[in-house]
Amino acid sequence: MGKAFRKVKYVAVITVGILLMLGISVPEVLQGQTVKESKKETKSKVVVPRSPTKATLWALIPGGGQIYNHKYWKIPIVYAGFAVIGYTAVFNTREYTKYRDAYNCVVSDSACTNPLAIYQPYQLKTVRDYYRRNMQLSYIVMGAWYILQMIDANVDAQFTHWNVSDNLSMDVYPIIKQPTVNRQTPSYNGVTLRFNF
Fold first, then answer.
1. For residues 48, 52, 54 and 57, what is the CA-based torsion angle, rounded to 10 degrees?
2. For residue 48, what pLDDT is reported?
3. Residue 189: how many other CB atoms lie within 10 Å
4. pLDDT at position 165
5. Of 62, 79, 80, 111, which residue is the least packed, with the fewest Cβ within 10 Å?
6. What is the pLDDT of residues 25-49, one digit of tens each?
7. Phi/psi class of residue 32: alpha, beta or left (left: φ > 0; alpha: ψ in -120 to 50)?
8. What angle (nearest 5°) sits at the alpha carbon of residue 66, between those of residues 64 and 50?
9. pLDDT at 129 over 90
10. Which of 42, 78, 86, 70 is closest to 151 using CA atoms?
11. What is the SS3 assignment for 175?
12. Single pTM value for the model
């Protein structure tokens, strides 16, 4: 009986430790607090509702909507996206212009002095079309990124109105079932989830 009790105690301590490490809510009794104490310590933050229209108008300047919503950590993401897409667009535009000029020179002038004139016209045309496609795609993606940051600001402002009740919660309880005296039901360990709506 002593070994079984130690084993159950060991499993209970391990289970509670794992739940605490994962940050899952453990019942107040296991944490050494009463329900009344935990309710006194809980202070609800007052969230000022934000206007989705103002957030969208602020987002006309990239990152402005995120500033309006006080989501400052999103601003580097917005500008990093614009930097990467902008670099790609500039690179593809430069290469497209270079191969377009070479192709036009080779096709229109037999004595072309362009350094890329060593290639055949169909080769220059293929590379030119490749960079033109990538250039156009880069500008389309940049426009989509611009619209996406505006949508993010609008949706984020909408969610400040989202009413989440303090009564919503989930508690996790470890279960240790002892065998009955006549051992007809086996012992087991488990976890119980309790949802409050």
1. 150
2. 72
3. 14
4. 66
5. 111
6. 444 444 444 444 445 455 556 667 8
7. left
8. 100
9. yes
10. 78
11. strand
12. 0.59
